[in-house]
## 1
Amino acid sequence: MGAHENVAAMLDDIAEVDGGRGTRVAFDDFLTGVEDFGARIPDP
């Protein structure tokens, strides 16, 4: 999908879509993936 920063930017774009109610993000190993993603994305 891309670098952590690119995925974070895409999620920001999705958040701006009118009528959007959510999105799904999948990780090979959920706990490790969520922790790794959260540690690598830039703060807003």
## 2
Amino acid sequence: MEVTPSKASLAAQTQAQKTAEKRSKDAEKDADRRRIAAEQSARSAESEASERIDYIREESAKIASAEQERQGHNLLTQKNKGYENLRKMRHEQQQDMHRRHSDGERELAKTTDENERALLGAEADGRNQLRDTLNRHGQLEENEHKRMTGQFENSQMDHTMKMDNLSQRHQGQITELMDDYNLENERMESNSAEARTKADENFQRRYNETVSENAKSLDRLHQDAGGKLNQIRNDTAQKLSAYEARQSDPFYKMIDIDAKIKETESDFVLTAIIPEHERKHVQVSVRGDQLVLTGQRRNEEKLELGPGRIKGSSSFQTYQESFPLPVSVDAKKLTREFDGDRLIARIPKRSADFAERSPASKKASPERIRAEKPQFPENLPQPPTLHPSSGSRPLGRTRG
């Protein structure tokens, strides 16, 4: 006996199918939201990593520069202190030697003055005694003459002996002072040499300590920088592989249409290689003082791989080249023609500007406008430089 499902059973099955479909749609939406959030998080992480790398580089450079400047300042301060102490010691030694020399000269002058005063006093006393004796014994001049002469001679001999004794004593004092001065001078020189030796030893010891501290600081900086660089290399390995894959993709390579411009006496002639199926998408115009060639390419392909399965792709490219015009031209008289795949565009010069143009300006070759390079992260290797024969051209592309 065949069992017929009831209406309630059918409604329950229908409701279950709708619930399952709704859950499936909700799951798909949730998966899309998670995918979008993951992409945004990846872009944010990439930007943060690039900013963190730049910050680490700047901080490392600042720390190394500050440390070198501080060590150099400390070394210079220690040198200046050592030189200043040495100068002070030399100055004190010179002042002490000058003071002792001055004291010796003063003692010598004092002794000489005392001797001269004693000699003058003795001579004055002798003369006074002789004058008094002559006055007092004037009557007995002849009898006393011999006695006085003898006394005078004895007195003169005594005076000579006194002068010799004073001279010898003075010479002994001078010799003793000179010996004391020489001994003191030798002692000061010895002390100065010892002080210089100690100052040099202290300076060399502090210099060696400073150099050792600098070497240790540099080793620590090198180790920190090496660790950070290894982290940077690990973070950018995936970016490098993505960049290499992009470089091998022909979609990112520049198009060369062999565009050239030539100047004649009366006009400018622009030539370029344009395939026949792209002629209607090429334009030549004058913008200010430049001749501009623009064009676009579009391609769509579809392939049936099986029943209900179709594979397709589309691509769109634009290109542009600009050439400077050194003189005014008549844009309304611009003409173009095709000779096979070669585009030939002519634009005549204005007659007034052509007459006023100097011979030097006629020989000037036009310069191309160079397109700006794409911006890549600084830690990635630079892309290869292109050197096309006819200059650089900016391109805009989209891929479907």
